[in-house]
Amino acid sequence: MATYNFDLIVYGGTIHGLITARRAASYGMKVCVLEWTKRLGGLFTGGLGVGDFTPGLTRWGYMKLMLQRIASRPPYNMTDGSEQKDRSSIEAKEAMTAILLDSPNVTTVVNAKIRTVVNNPANNAVQKIILENGDIYVALHSTSDGSYEVDLAAFAGLPMRGGRDGQPLYDEQVVNPNANGTMSNLGYNPGFHLPENFRGYDTRGDRFRNQSQPARPGMRIGEGAAISQSYGWRFSLKKFVGNRPWVKPSGWGPADVNRIVDMTNKSSNFASPPDGSAAGGSFPYSVSARPISGTVAGEAGRYSTNGTDFPGIYTDGWCEMGYRQREIKQSKAAIEFMGACWTWMDSPLISTSRKNTLGAFGLPDDEFTDDYIEFPGFPGAYYVRDGRSIIAQYRMDLKEIARNGAGKFNPSDSIGIGGYSLDIHTPYLFTRPDGLVQKEGGTDYTESDYGIPLRACLPKKSVCPNMSVSWGLFGSSGFRSSYRMEETVACVADALGVLHGIAWSTNRDIHQVPASEVQAAIKALGATITV
């Protein structure tokens, strides 16, 4: 048990948490980054090798420096200042270490699980973070939450918004209900209301891809289930060379094999060709594999994925779980996924074409060798898209990102811009009497680029005067389906680092710094804040 004092404490060793820390450190602040898992970098270094840039978004600051560094090194060797969008975890980790972990003012601590947070009784400011191991971290000036789970804010008692993946039903306001008033999402797209070529009648809630919630009789028509929005992994893979074989998990038995075969055969979808393309699934649960690190599509080399969401079936309410429960749940999901892949390769009831597609790939033999979940090569970063967020001074919603006659959203306190397409996923699947599965929900909003206000990152001063939040800023599930891009959040996080640095260096609290000061500083660093 020991006590440590820092000017700024950032909870969450994600890439955006580290960026907030590094930027604040550039002002001279002594910063500590606490991360509850055993690894740093979040999804950026954790398997998300397929980068989805927001169209039109100009990256700046530390995120841009990292992407440029990756591009300047082998195998890309770019000399024109280009940014490398797709990359391996090895490349991402090297850039993170060189750009973000180079300052003596930044201390990182992993396996930092919070036991309790002590607030100042006079003003609710976070004073101390006490870890499960008894260590005490004192925030001399301020704090920031960069975690996917928004744990620091929750432990500090801030009012929270339950995210789509943290609650049983998707209850956001209905804007355009159908004739029966049964819409479950913020819009209407008739194309999302047609039956798809799923086979089988799902009475158990475990046969359909990306499904997060168990079946609930009477939810809509027959037995329905909410489709998963986010949870899962983004895999690094190797094709043909340097790949680890899919292995049989300990305790995996005939009942498990039968369950996977049943799930595979009864959830086939014509929209998921088994070719490993961006649109198809090279794994049992709609994971697509794309070439990275100079690999030519279809040939031997490194690949990455932009799925899978299947493990969400095990992780409802992830953010509200204790740390140990999260670890148990993600291990169970990893075992299920590995077991499914082994079953595909081993069972005579799985087609040869599926075996050939999956068998070409394997987990890499040179990535995640010490920071894996359950199996070497298995990514250690678990993907949480919309677990929860704080209730701040401003709530971002679809009205801010819809392209309409009112024009684009440019708040006076904008500290960043977003604009990625609304990737909301169909909220519900339900079975029909004819045995097909019908989707319900969707959006018909045409999104636009939008400004991101500082107010969305700050709780009211009376609630907590010394905390900012990057990933978990205040926004609806519809908004967060766009905002969630790592590069977008990273730029907002960089601006928050500027906020903390200015406040500390001028002996003010973060609420006393006008947005205009932050805007001037980040513009000088190359930021774009209007659309």
Describe the structure.
The protein is built from 11 helices and 21 strands. The protein has a domain at 236-364. The protein starts with a strand and ends in a 7-residue tail after the last helix. Helix content is 24%, strand content 17%. The longest helix has 24 residues, at 323-346. Mean pLDDT is 81; it is low at 166-230 and 268-285. The chain has 531 residues and is of the alpha+beta class. The strands form 5 sheets. Strands 1, 2, 3, 4, 5, 6 and 21 form a 7-stranded mixed beta sheet that branches. The chain has a 5-stranded antiparallel beta sheet with strand order 8-19-18-10-9, with no helix packed on it. Helix 5 packs across helix 6, helix 6 packs across helix 7 and helix 10 (486-505) crosses helix 11 (515-524).
